[in-house]
């Protein structure tokens, strides 16, 4: 397993380097990241729990380390984090079911395998 706090520190350093090379890219990202804070319809803990579920579905280790630290800072418990992760697992399973239906639709569109010709 990773040393998550050390990984976060290294990641922030690399993102800082990108910010120096492309400041508008970093500024744009920061604007998007802070947008939810301005509306305040969701509290910070809820936003971080959503971010963790998205981090899992996006398979983003950097997102995980940043948003775990933030979720804990905003008072999220292990149980709340686990529940948010359960939503991510269910969503991934649901997406797999939807795309399985798309595969079956494609199979139907092609008809029998005998009618498919090689390119």
Rough outline: extended
The amount of helix comes to over 70%
> What's the CATH class label?
Mainly Alpha
Mean pLDDT: 92
CATH-defined fold name: AhpD-like
CATH superfamily, by name, is: AhpD-like
Distance between the termini: 45 Å
Given as residue ranges, the uncertain stretches (5+ residues, pLDDT < 50) are: none
State Rg: 20 Å
> How many extended strands?
0
For the report, how would you describe the main beta sheet?
none
When the domains are counted, the total is 1
Secondary-structure element string: HHHHH
What is the second-level CATH architecture? Up-down Bundle
How does this structure look, described?
- The chain has 119 residues and is an all-alpha fold.
- The protein has one domain: Up-down Bundle (AhpD-like), CATH 1.20.1290.10.
- It is 81% helix and 0% strand.
- The protein is extended.
- 10% of the residues are buried.
Question: What are its keywords?
Answer:
119 residues, 5 helices, AhpD-like, mainly alpha
Q: What topology emerges from the helices and strands here?
A:
Blueprint: H1 4-21, H2 23-39, H3 44-58, H4 61-73, H5 78-110
Helix pairs in contact: 1-2, 1-4, 3-4, 3-5
């Amino acid at each position: 397993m990773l040393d998550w706090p050390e990984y976060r520190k290294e990641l922030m350093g690399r993102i800082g380097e990108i910010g120096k090379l492309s400041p508008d890219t970093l500024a744009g990202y920061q604007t998007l990241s802070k947008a939810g804070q301005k509306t305040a319809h969701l509290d910070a803990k809820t936003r971080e729990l959503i971010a963790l579920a998205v981090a899992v579905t996006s398979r983003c280790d950097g997102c995980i380390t940043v948003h775990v630290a933030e979720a804990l800072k905003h008072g999220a418990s292990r149980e709340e984090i686990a529940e948010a992760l359960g939503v991510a697992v269910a969503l991934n399973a649901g997406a797999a079911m939807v795309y399985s239906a798309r595969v079956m639709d494609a199979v139907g569109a092609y008809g029998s395998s005998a009618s498919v010709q090689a390119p």
